[in-house]
Amino acid sequence: MIELDGADATAFAQAQFMNDVAALEPGGWQWNGWLTPKGRVIALFALLRIAPGTLWMLVPDADIGPLSDALRRFVFRSKVAIRPRPGLVATASFAKPVQASGATLAVLDGGTVELDAGTPSRPRALRLSSQSDHGPVDAELEAAWAAADLEHGLPRLPSSQAEQWTPQQLSLERLDAFSVRKGCYPGQEIVARTHFLGKAKRGLVLLESAAALPVGAQVTNGTDALGSVVASAATPSRGLALAVVPLDRQQPAAQVDGIDVREAPLLDGLQR
């Protein structure tokens, strides 16, 4: 978690991040990201507006220390403090949230912040608190959570995939994670040009297999290269991956690093 706090927190985030932060009301949250000037995703995160001058970046994969340092280089004279919040603990459950719903968060007893991280048919709740007695991490359930993210088209980008892909290549329009109309931000020109000229030639596909699929591995249709794996998760029963491939491919993906795969439909409902 990274906190942006101060009178200029919203204006700073609006100028730096790819989604419309100014449209986010206190108590709301959205998918968002930070791009390079060439429009490549540095980090993808949930952005929570806790109060008028306080934003939380829930960053599932990037290292929040270097990310915070990089953001501070653009503060200049803005009245905003950027600091990691390592004391916050995230706990999750495959159950309906107590109070949160859709893009509206809830503050429960004790100050715990709750998010609706699922869909009506596949409920999930995520709670953020400073509690110290949360117990050990359940690796199997953590893997199941990551797999559910991938099934809904939410890329879990490891460091090797940072600064490699545009929002359209990661099909982030499915999550309402970027804006093409809000005004300038790093990479906005690339994002807007791709959107308005209709030049997105690649996007995400969900792959299933009997084994874990390595990130960065080549995806083929059995003979020809199609693209590469950008995110991967594995449960005891199967492997899942998101890969960037041509949208107009003539044949489906068939193998990843010699492992047989099949394409599966991405699930809807995680947009916020």
Architecture overview:
The chain starts with a strand and ends in an 8-residue tail after the last strand. The radius of gyration is 19 Å and the shape is globular. The protein has a six-stranded antiparallel β-barrel. Strands 2-3-4-1-5 form a five-stranded antiparallel β-sheet, covered by helices on one side. It has a four-stranded antiparallel β-sheet with strand order 6-9-8-7, with no helix packed on it. The mean pLDDT is 95. It has helices at 9-16, 64-72, 139-151, 188-197, and strands at residues 2-5, 29-35, 41-51, 54-58, 81-84, 89-93, 106-107, 113-116, 125-129, 202-209, 218-220, 225-235, 238-246, 255-256, 259-264. The chain folds into two domains: 2-151, 2-Layer Sandwich (Gyrase A, domain 2); 159-264, Beta Barrel (Elongation Factor Tu (Ef-tu), domain 3), CATH 2.40.30. 15% of the residues lie in helices and 32% in strands. It has four helices and 15 strands. The longest helix is centred in the middle third of the chain and has 13 residues, at 139-151. The chain is an alpha+beta fold.
